[in-house]
Amino acid sequence: MSGSREQQRQELLGFLRSIQKAGLPVERLADGDPLVASGLIDSLAILQIVTWLETTYGIDFAVLGIAPEDLVTIGGILEVIGESAGRSPA
User: Fold this and answer.
1) C-beta separation of 45 from 39 below 8 A
2) Predicted local distance difference test score (pLDDT) of residue 2
């Protein structure tokens, strides 16, 4: 699945809404705000994000070698999506 960065951002926000803790609307976060430290998600939710990225965008983390730090902000996750789209053979 591809699309513009804004489309990818909206898809990501929709997913984050489905796993977020109550009390902090995802819309209030800037792309650079830390997801776990903000209280939006807990650290285990990072695994859900990885699974979602693998399923939605076909990202193979074993091949890409993504560091966990790349998945702590909305902007970081969008960069991972963008980088993986640039590396895909399709």
Assistant:
1) no
2) 57
